[in-house]
Each structure stands twice: as structure tokens, then as C-alpha cells.
Design brief:
The protein has 15 helices and 18 strands. By secondary structure, the protein is α/β, with parallel strands linked by helices. β9, α6 and β10 form a beta-alpha-beta unit. It is elongated and about 85 Å long. The protein starts with 9 loop residues before the first helix and ends with a helix.
Length: about 550
């Protein structure tokens, strides 16, 4: 209920106030009909009329009472909300997003973005006004990475975090709360992600995606608090980024280096790391069309699809030249080396089928070495190229072998996608070795265009109801004691049959799976809303189409 503004007639002032007070007492927990702060005329019934009852000043109008607030409706859901009584907050005329001058260098971009989204002003000031949203950095050790605190109190909002990413995620919560309900509820949100790596993997090699489409996905990912975009830009079908050292390998169309810088700039502003993947020693068919002498051939002279001859030093030289060219183009701290599906290793007897590889393995690693050791050494050598640039290397799980004389370096993160390929061991074997894994389980998280090889498009409902980061292979979770070694997960778009869907169809196809993934990597606990409620909220926050 709401007391009418304006100066009531003197003859009715006391009666109005008393009646309103009785109604308030009779209806405990009544919530005000408006979220706007009460104006001066609503706070008091004192007037200037002369009077008969001047000796007894009328009591003030009663303050509205409010029900305890509920948590804001967001995706992912906030992990902790302390309710309070109050009108909450919503954008109002003259309100601003403000950043203290001492934090301006770090948070001005986040503040300006939120101000534009909520159609508010922006200012650098240490003196917020009623109705303002204040963004500020807390002490470095005031919370876990990417955490934030959002407080709605007294007609203001304050968002703090130990780092810029945390404050940014607080602005995403505020934006979603306003979009889902029209206002942010009174109270305090304390929030942080369960997993440090959360995102989308995109195959731009087999299918060309425009810069605009990628940018739209980055913005959608940011609102879901996802922080990683993997770009698989080289494969048998095409090589999709401009090269100055080897322009002869580049396909048309492709991303220019200016395009990549534009994508990286937007991603950085949204606290998303772009993780490039230059896959080798397999999946290099586009490169091999320009360098057929590097093609791997079996003992009968037959070419092996997509595979370079890793016994030929020229193969390593070419790949390393490309790696060194692209390292400065991607400022993020992660680099994907691929290492999957090297076809020489799927032969029944690799040693007999590829005698040149067998000889090279023994010459380099000793008489007991096998071709898998040569492949593992290739992975380690490529990791040695990217580490000096400050990159943490990644590789697909079927590039890690056991039982050989060469082991993959311990710092190479395992991107676990399958248990079907040669060398693809059960996830527990990697975990028991102490390795860190990222979940790209092909049973739930593979969106393969055209659905070849018995793949089916993943659904948000199935991810939401059945999958967790512990489910690395198939449908069975690994024991919870390994949870800390599982760094997170990505939904993977693979374009095996590139023409099966348009860009728009891909965007709509991954919309709900990506939202479901975002929920499950932000909070490891079972989600509370049923799928129908979650979907309805997702449709409101990120509408179909």
C-alpha cells in the first residue's frame, strides 16, 4: 500500500494517519506498491493551515512495512542472499553508476557498460547520491577470485569485489535482476563461482563464423558469467586466421588479425579469455595442402588424413613458426595444443605400419620407445614453445598416453572429451595422476552440426537435470574427492557438417544448453528451480531468436 502524496486537508489529517496506521498493523508484512522512495509530502502530514487543533500536532504518516525480500532471479542463480525489508532498487531519473576516483582506472569500463545497459548516467565520484549504483574494489584478499558482494539498502546499490571480474559479475546480477523483475531486491548477495573455467568452444575452422556473430555470443556469455571462449581455428577443412609467415595456408573466408584483435578486445572487456587452438600433429589437412611433402604416409605409401610426419623435422619447424606468430595475437594465459586423433596410432600395428616413426622414436627416446612416445614428445615440445610466452598449455585427453617411456608434462591441462578414441583412458586414471581436467564430455556437451557419428544435439534440460562437472565421461560421475582437480567445463560446437545449420540456428541451438552449463559450473549444488521455471527465466533474460 502507499500513502498518497500531497498536503491533505487539515480536517482529515489525523483521521487519515490513524486509519492508515491501523491498516498497517492489521496487515503485517504488507509490501509497498511502489519501489520509489517516499517523498517529503509522504513522510509527514504537517501543513500550514491555521487552526483549531494547532495545540496537538498531527502524527506523521506511517512508514510502509515490507515483506522480507527474495533472492534476485538470475542465471546462474546467486549462491547466497541475505534478505531484508525494504523497497529494493530500480533505475530512476537522475540516478547514476558511480566509481570512486581511486578505482576509475580499473572499473570505469564496467561502470559505463552498466550505465548504458540500465540507461543511467555515469560519474567518477566518492560521493554517491540516493538512487546511485556504486562499484568499488575491495582489498585484494577480501574474497575468492571472481567473487562479489552486492548490497541493496537505503535506495542505493553497492557492488564490491576483490578483482575487476568479481565486480563485473555483480553488475551482471544487477542487470538480470532488473530485467527479470523490474527491480533488485533489498538485501545482500554474496556470490562466487564453483569453477574457474566456464565457457564455450567454437569450431571456426570447419565453418566460418562472422565477427559480429562471435561478438554477440561473447556478450551473451558474459551475462551468464562465462569466462572462456575456445577458438579451434585450424583443421583439415580450413585454416581461418590470417598468417603473415605462411599466407599460403590460409583459407577464404578467414579472420584477419584485426578481426582477432577486435574479438580479443571485446572479450577482455567482458572478462572472457579467448583460448586459441592450433591443433597438431593431426587435423592439419588445410596446412598439408600447401605442404604435401610433410604428409604422413604409411608403409604402403598411402596418405594419412590430416596427419603430419612427426619424424620429419620440417613438420615441427612449420608448426612452431605458426605458434610463435600467433602467440602475441592472443593475450590470454591459456593455449590449446590439440594433440588428438593422430591417425598413425589408430592402426592395428603402428610400429609396422609406420617404420619411419618407429625408428625416429627409438633414436630419440631409446630402444624401448614406441610411436606413442614420439607423439607424446611432440606435445611436450610444442608446450615448450608456448610456455615462455606465459601460456598454460592444454591438450585433448586422447593425446595423453600411458605405459610409454615419455609422459606428457604435468602442467598440461587435460581437456577431457571422450573415452572412445585410441589412448583415451577413463578419467580416473588422469585424476589419480594428479592432473587437472576440464570437462567437455561428448555425451552432454558436444553440439555437432548435422549430428554425424551418432551424436545428437545436447539439450539444456538434460544438462540441467543430469550433468555435473564430475560427469566427465558417459553418464557416471567420478568421486567427489576429485572435484578440485576438475577446473570447469565448456560447451563445444563442432561443425563436422558445416551446412547443416546457419549461424542463427547454431546460436538458438546452444542458447539453453549454454545457460544450463552456466548454472552447473557456477554452483555445484543441485539447482532448486525445476527445469520449466529455469527455462522460463532463460527465455525472459535471453529471448529465443
Amino acid at each position: 500500500m502507499r500513502v498518497r502524496s500531497g498536503k491533505p486537508r487539515r480536517s482529515h489529517a489525523v483521521a487519515t494517519a490513524v486509519a492508515a496506521a491501523l491498516v498497517t498493523l492489521a496487515v503485517p508484512g504488507c509490501t509497498a506498491a511502489s519501489d520509489e522512495p517516499r517523498g517529503p509530502a509522504e513522510a509527514s502530514t504537517t501543513g500550514s493551515a491555521p487552526a483549531a487543533t494547532a495545540s496537538a500536532a498531527p502524527p506523521p504518516s506511517p512508514t510502509p512495512s515490507y515483506a522480507l525480500s527474495s533472492a534476485p532471479r538470475t542465471i546462474p542463480a546467486v549462491r547466497e542472499h541475505t534478505p531484508a525489508r525494504g523497497p529494493g532498487w530500480k533505475p530512476a531519473a537522475g540516478a547514476r553508476v558511480v566509481v570512486p576516483p581511486g578505482n576509475a582506472a580499473a572499473l570505469a569500463d564496467e561502470g559505463k557498460l552498466l550505465a548504458g545497459e540500465l540507461r543511467m548516467g555515469f560519474a567518477e565520484t566518492a560521493d554517491p547520491r540516493p538512487g546511485d549504483v556504486e562499484l568499488a574494489l575491495g582489498a585484494k584478499n577480501s574474497g575468492s577470485p571472481e567473487s562479489y558482494t552486492l548490497t541493496v539498502q537505503g535506495g542505493r546499490v553497492r557492488i564490491t569485489g576483490p578483482d575487476e571480474a568479481g565486480v563485473f559479475y555483480g553488475t551482471r546480477t544487477l542487470k538480470q535482476a532488473v530485467k527479470s523483475a523490474g527491480s533488485a531486491p533489498e538485501g545482500t548477495v554474496r556470490d562466487a563461482p564453483a569453477k574457474p573455467q566456464r565457457g564455450l568452444n567454437l569450431d571456426i575452422a570447419r565453418k566460418n563464423f562472422t565477427v559480429g556473430w562471435i561478438e554477440d555470443e561473447l556478450r551473451r556469455m558474459a551475462d551468464l558469467k562465462l569466462n572462456q571462449l575456445g577458438l579451434h581455428f585450424s583443421d583439415d577443412q580450413a585454416f581461418r586466421i590470417q598468417s603473415d609467415t605462411h599466407p599460403e595456408i590460409v583459407s577464404t573466408p578467414h579472420l584477419s588479425k584485426a578481426d582477432v584483435r577486435r574479438i580479443n578486445a571485446l572479450a577482455a572487456g567482458l572478462h572472457i579469455t579467448v583460448v586459441p587452438e592450433l591443433d597438431s600433429p593431426g587435423h592439419l589437412g588445410a596446412v598439408l595442402r600447401a605442404y604435401p611433402a610433410l604428409q604422413l604416409r604409411d608403409v604402403q605409401g598411402r596418405a594419412v588424413k590430416g596427419a603430419v610426419d612427426i619424424s620429419n623435422p620440417a613438420s615441427a619447424k612449420l608448426v612452431d613458426e605458426l605458434l610463435r606468430e600467433y602467440l602475441p595475437l592472443f593475450p590470454g594465459a591459456l593455449w590449446h595444443l590439440g594433440a588428438d586423433e593422430y591417425q598413425a596410432l589408430v592402426y592395428r600395428d603402428p610400429q609396422a605400419s609406420f617404420p619411419q616413426l618407429a625408428r625416429a622414436a627409438q633414436q630419440k627416446y631409446g630402444p624401448s620407445a614406441r610411436i606413442q612416445d614420439l607423439a607424446e614428445g611432440w606435445l611436450n615440445d610444442r608446450a615448450d614453445v608456448v610456455r615462455p610466452a606465459g601460456k598454460v598449455p592444454k591438450a585433448w585427453n586422447d593425446g595423453f598416453f600411458t605405459g610409454g617411456v615419455v609422459q606428457a608434462a604435468k602442467d598440461i591441462q587435460v581437456e577431457y572429451w571422450t573415452g572412445k578414441e585410441n589412448g583415451a583412458r577413463p578419467p580416473l586414471e588422469y585424476l589419480r595422476e594428479g592432473r587437472k581436467l576440464v570437462n567437455l564430455n561428448d555425451e552432454y556437451l558436444y553440439y555437432v552440426l548435422g549430428q554425424p557419428n551418432q551424436f545428437t544435439y545436447p539439450t539444456g534440460k538434460r544438462i540441467y537435470e543430469q550433468w555435473t562437472p564430475l560427469v566427465l565421461r558417459g553418464t557416471t560421475p567420478v568421486p567427489d574427492r576429485y572435484a578440485a582437480q576438475i577446473l570447469g567445463a565448456r560447451l563445444a560446437v563442432w561443425c563436422d557438417l558445416a551446412g547443416a545449420q546457419t549461424q542463427a540456428q547454431v546460436a538458438e541451438g546452444i542458447r539453453l544448453p549454454l545457460a544450463a552449463l552456466a548454472q552447473k559450473v557456477w554452483d555445484a549444488r543441485p539447482p532448486q528451480p525445476a527445469w520449466a521455471q529455469f527455462k522460463a527465466l532463460a527465455d525472459r533474460l535471453q529471448p529465443p531468436g
